């Protein structure tokens, strides 16, 4: 199914009564915490981490995916891991996943990669994360040979992370779906990695924009493997990021069944193209999500 078939050029989604409700508990409460990928507000996090976390908690966000681990200093946002853990505990919020910089290690020896993974595991354990996530490939690495090499590395990392009692996942963008003489990186990842060791974090925006699949089709083909989702909207004209509700993705139509997906966590995200500012955008997207989509999750 081409993405144009399930984009809807509408100003707002329908009433929440149209949404499926299997994600809600028997007591009518959401099954999942409202999550935010902190890259969306990474400049604010670097300027004043504590005030920023206070602000997004007040907006209703309860769980976070972290970004920006400094492995040399073992720090996040200028804080040592135990210091950040104390901040999170004081605020009564959680970090369930982290995006870590694996791409520079793709072409390096396995022992160097293993040392880096050990550092990631240590930081993840201190912050009580559940998942370590590979988020990115550099432009020069987006070849089929590199995708096949990466599949090998993903299995190695997955085994190491799993042995440490954590989960490991790969996050997609658009470049995984580019055709290379009948092959693409995403299919290679699916076929050549162990589904028990390497889970998937589905960026729904990029699936809609760049793939020939719908999110529901991806889940149907590999149920239980998409343990995390990224949720963000698409500008109707430029197809850039935009705030939830301002764009063309009809989430009430395309969200997969969270149980079939194996969903454990989701995160709202907006990588740029803010209508006003990053903080205003995460506030607006959060409000829209709670009003129109949280019934589903």
Automatic annotation (TrEMBL):
Molecular-function annotations in GO: isomerase activity
Pfam families (UniProt xref): AP_endonuc_2
Chain ranges of the Xylose isomerase-like TIM barrel domain: 54-255
Keyword Isomerase (UniProt): yes
Domain of life: Bacteria
Record key words, sorted: Isomerase
PANTHER family in alphabetical order: HYDROXYPYRUVATE ISOMERASE, INOSOSE DEHYDRATASE
Protein name (record): Sugar phosphate isomerase/epimerase family protein
UniProt source species: Negadavirga shengliensis
